[in-house]
Amino acid sequence: MTHQFPGDPGRKHLSRPGIIGKDASGHDTSTGDPVGIHDAAAENQRFRDYYRRAQFGLIRHSGTSLELDQPKNCVPSSDGWSCRNGPYSVDINRTGEIRVKDGDWLSKYSAAIYNNFFHIHEFGRRNRHRIVEPVDFVDNIHTGETLYHLPTYYLHHGGVPCSPPPSGVRDKLDDAEKKKRVMDILSRQYELSGQRLETLSKAIDIVGKVDDAITLAQLAGLVAEGSVISSIGTVTSIAGVLLFPVGATVAILNAIEIGERTYGFRAIAYTTTAYAFSDNVVPDKSEAPDKSFVIRERIDRRGADAAELAALDQAWKVAKDSTWQNIHQTVLDRRVSGSNYRAYLRACGDDQKQKFCTLILKGFEGELKGKNPGVFDTWVRNYNVLYPN
């Protein structure tokens, strides 16, 4: 459902630092979103008009300027509603009041109530005349101040009961503008920059969701937790991210003969790749290849006996099964969805299967270099054996 007002002035956006506010002791109390508004008065007039019209039942559903969203995550509390959505939360009393806590942003309130970041203009504060109006600059709210959820405030003061909280409006944006706003918000919230921010951007493109705050927060959290990725081709940094879930498997393989160990390392790379690029993963059933056909063929040609081949097959099976289980346990431990974790892994490999698998293979260089020059040289030469061969 959409809403538009006559004379819609349009928008101009400008990134700018947050305005600094101080309490009586001189301490900084500012908090808020990293999105400044070039023309705050014109920007907020549409929202001010909307909620005043809503108060008197004068809304007209025409045009495409604003969109209507229903609250998704609010339950009754002793004095209003408690809205909880993953890492985001806000408490709203029955008159619409919200007490700002340290670290609060309007986009976090939006995520808590609606599971998206785009309702930042439906929160207000009292002006110098004690009239509640939309917050002029969304990156300038202060710890301890009282804000208002405008849909609740205006309907309450218009004599309209608000149980549950009323629906709210947001700008109708295209996906490109939504993604830009999301990246601005998450880069500040999770302190992401450079290659980490590029990885997040790729992960968002992979999942194809810019309206789901929980998905976006999980992706940003995974990127923030990962090793610093200085460049997509840097082996040490990528390996720290991609090999973290399978550390226990690597330890198992390090206890066996070197030939079986390297074959098992390849099984880890193939299994992790199969997981990352699968559309329908079953936790107890690995979709990874049962062997490397090319590597096995090369071993056969040099005359390996049955015992050696059986040992290689066992090393592959152990590595494959252990890797699959360890990855799923990592997803559970991190409390993220499997699809979001796969999108994150794929983004680390630039969403290319062969590149992703090769980066994992290169991550094992530290396990082999300096221990057996012949084995290490063979390992490097075999980078041209591409997944799933």
Q: pLDDT below 50 for ≥5 consecutive residues: which ranges?
A: 1-28, 35-40, 57-64, 227-236
What's the structural domain tally? 3
Largest sheet: 4 strands, antiparallel
Strand content: 5-15%
Overall pLDDT level:
79
Query: What fraction, in percent, of the residue positions are helical?
Result: 40-55%
Q: Measured on Cα atoms, how large is the radius of gyration?
A: 27 Å
Which class of secondary structure composition applies to the elements?
alpha+beta
The SSE string, one letter per element, is EEEEHEEEEEHEEEEHEHHHHHHHHHHHH
Number of helical regions: 15
Distance between the termini: 51 Å
The order of strands across the largest sheet is 9-13-10-11
- Total number of β-strand segments? 14
Sum up the overall morphology in one term: elongated
Describe the fold and architecture:
The chain has 389 residues and is α+β, with helices and mostly antiparallel strands. It folds into three domains: 2-171, no CATH class; 175-225; 235-384, no CATH class. 47% of the residues lie in helices and 12% in strands. α7 (235-242) crosses α13.
Tags for this model:
389 residues; alpha+beta; 3 domains; four-stranded antiparallel sheet; three-stranded antiparallel sheet; 15 helices; 14 strands; disordered N terminus
Quick description:
This protein has helices at 40-55, 106-114, 150-157, 175-189, 194-207, 213-225, 235-242, 247-253, 258-276, 293-301, 306-334, 338-348, 353-363, 365-368, 373-381, and strands spanning 2-3, 13-14, 30-31, 36-37, 66-69, 74-76, 80-85, 88-93, 97-99, 123-126, 132-134, 141-142, 146-149, 168-171. With 389 residues, the protein is an alpha+beta fold.
